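Give me structure tokens for this 74-residue protein.
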Amino acid sequence: MPVSEANQWWTVKDFARFYGLSERSIYDFIAAGELIAHRFGKRRRAIRISDSDRLEWERQCRTRSKTSQHCDKD
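Here you go.
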């Protein structure tokens, strides 16, 4: 579930749980530029995914060909 309903931010852990994927897969999607994430904090270690970026990722997942590993990873 989102960290805050008002702000609609997801942690990597919650995002992974919601989709039944590993956290490593989510980090890989972020590193590959397939999922937009935002870094916060003094050393930018807190990674959050906005709900609008989650919905866009989900839309792309739905429209990509079956050969894409975008949503088949884990």
